[in-house]
Each structure stands twice: as structure tokens, then as C-alpha cells.
Amino acid sequence: MQTLNTEISEHVKCLQNWSDKEAYIKDHELQDYLDRQKGSLKYYQNSAYAMIDDFLLQYAEQGIENEQACRDSLLAVLNDRTGMCETNLNLLEREMNNNDEQSFFDKINWTWVIIVAVLLICIILLISLSGRKQKGVVPQPKPMPSNGGSGGNTAGIVVRRKTATILKKQSLEDVIENPAYLKVDAIDFCEESAVRRLYIKNTCIIDLYNMYASDLANPNNAKENGCMVLGRWVHDTESGEYYVSLEQLVMPGDDAIFKEYELNFGGKIKLSVLEQLRRLRRETNMQYDLTCWVHSHPGLSVFFSNSDLSVQMQLKHPTHPNFLTALVVDTLTPKEDVGIFTFRRDGNINSKNELTKMYSLKEWYAWAQQSIAEPPITPKEPTTETETETPVEPAPTITSTTTSSDGASYQYSSN
């Protein structure tokens, strides 16, 4: 909430001092930002009691002398923070709509303005021609003053820079039949998923496995850990489904905090994500985006908590939110269980009870190593008959999990 209030205050300050409010609102997509933050605020307000339950669960074994007083105190803090956020959002909305100059111009009937302007130009031309015929002298044009003063002889030129976002190519053509990508059909783990298929690059899987190597080496002191994943996505407009790739990990900065029940990504990871996105888009001419985020529940089982949902809602794309995927890993299970959580077609995230399959990070890692070790297949010489082969995909392991509550506290700002 503190981070969000700071961001809103910066936008309000800029709007108050910006000469072209309309351009600032458009360049920063403030209307989408406002709608998105209002939705997040409503979620926080509706889930206040659940968040308090998650927080108090961490201290259940220690005992709380007056639990009700503690709940009332926590609720007062949440209401104070959300109330401040709501006030700032309303202030931002007023600043966005408080554009008197724009309102004045919106009231003008531009058709009549153009007609009157044309008539005035015609009248001025007629008067000018009439005056020239009477005097018989054609006046010479006066030299225009320069920006440099009376000593210059070149007219000043004002250049206005217009910023625009240029989208790169939105394609997965080089991924669909690429053996370096593990193909995971969403129908295998959630029938109503808005994501139809995931393509996970082998090097991405290896980096993910290595990230959790410390948990395997020291299971008695395992801490929650996480990262962001960049990739690409395409949207099937007929079915409304998404095809998504997971290609490159982005690790948190040195301001991240990872403890047994706390996962705080910090603020530096945002800069790393933006920097690597610019580099990938420039080098490949492809539209890379943040397609997934990953975190662990060591020894807590695989599930998606209210805190996880809050992070998911902050990270989602402003116009295509449903392609964002989340991976939850329990590093202390025998096969390092992986649960895949995506948005359903109705816009809600799938829950643990809806997962029909769990995957194994160890099995993914074994496949990734093998796919890198195997030499590329040499294309066959063309024959008279067309041969087609169906690629064989590794079969993920189905495991059952027990319901558990998440006592973790997650913090991340994506705006």
C-alpha cells in the first residue's frame, strides 16, 4: 500500500505540472492503471479477514493472549491503509478528469470552426488582391525573425517528440515444433484454463532447478524463493485461448527477502525485468512479456493462497491478463511437486482443488538435460511419400496433495 500510494502521488504531481495532460494519461495508460488498482483495492478490502487469518496462522503455536484484540488492531491497520489508498485513487481520478482546457475544446463544434476559418481566409485573400490591383505594387514578404535574435536569418523550428509503443512480432512459430521446448497441455491439469498450452524452454527448466538446489542440499533450513519468467504469447481469437512460452528467468535483486514463511521480491527485480524485456525485444524483434512467476512452498504442499492471488493480480497484463501463469513448487517432496495455476476462461484463477495433475521438477530437469545432450536431428532426404511423426512428450507424474494453509506473506509492486 505504501508503494502504491507513492506511485499515485507521483502521477498526481505530474498531472498537476504537465502541459499536456491528455498525452501524459495516454502514454502512461493511466485509465487502465486506475481501473486495475481500483480492482486490487476492492480485493484487499473484501479479503481483509482472510489476510488476517493467514497472518495469525504463523503464530498459532506460540499462542496469543487476546486474539480478538489483535484481530481488531490488524483490521484497523488494514482499513487505514486501504482508506488512504482509496483517497489517493479518487484524487488521481479527479486530476485525470480536471482538464478545463480540454473540456472547453470538446464543446466546440469543429465543423463550424473550419467553415468560418475558410471564409475568413477567402475574405483576406480578396482584400489583399484588391489592394494590390489598386496600388500596382506587390509587397515583398518580411524576413521572419530567428530564435537567436535580430542577428540571425533563419526561422526557429520547434520539434515535438511523440512517444509511442511499437509492438514487435507476436509469434511462436519457432517454438511450436522446437524440441528444446517442453510442451504442457493445460487440459491435462485444468479443463477450464484460458491457457491452452505452455512451451517451457529446456534452459529455463535447468535454471529453475538450480535455483532450488540449496533447498535440496539443506532441507532442514529451506526458505521460500521465487523469480519472474519472460516469454511470448499468442491469442487464438476464435477460441479465446492463449499459447504461452516460458523462456528466461529473471532473479530478484539484493533487496529481496526470503525467509521460511516470507517471500518479498523487492523493487529491483522490476528494473531487471524491464531491462531484459527491452534487450530481448531489440535482439529478436519479438514481443516478449512477463509470462510467468514462480515461488516455492517448501514442506507446505502446492496450493495458491490469497497472498499469491494478490501478486497474480498485480502482475497481470493490462489488456490480456489471462495468459499470465504461476508455478508453485514444493521443494521438499520426493519429486519436487509443481502445480500450474492459470486464469480460467471466466477470469478467476484455478484453485488447488481443480488441479487434476501435479508435475515433477525433477522429471522436467531430467528431460531438459537429455534434450540438450541429444544432437539435432538431421532432416531426411525428400521421398515420394510424405511422412509425418507425432512428437512424443514426457508424461508428467500425477501425485496427490493434502490441503494446507499458507502462512506466507508476499510483497511485490509491478506498477
Instruction: State the low-pLDDT regions, or none.
Output: 137-165, 378-415
- List the total number of helices: 12
What separation lies between the terminal Cα atoms?
12 Å
Shape: globular
Sum this structure up briefly.
The protein is of the alpha+beta class and 415 residues long.
Give structural notes.
This protein is of the alpha+beta class. The chain has three domains: 2-98, no CATH class; 106-132; 181-375 and 394-411, 3-Layer(aba) Sandwich (Cytidine Deaminase, domain 2). The protein is 41% helix and 14% strand. The protein contains twelve helices and 13 strands. The strands form three sheets. The chain has a six-stranded mixed beta sheet with strand order 6-3-9-10-11-12, sandwiched between helices. A four-stranded mixed beta sheet has the order 1-2-5-4. Strands 7-8-13 form a three-stranded mixed beta sheet. A hairpin with a 6-residue loop joins strand 10 and strand 11. The longest helix is centred in the N-terminal third of the chain and has 31 residues, at 67-97. Mean pLDDT is 78; it is low at 137-165 and 378-415.
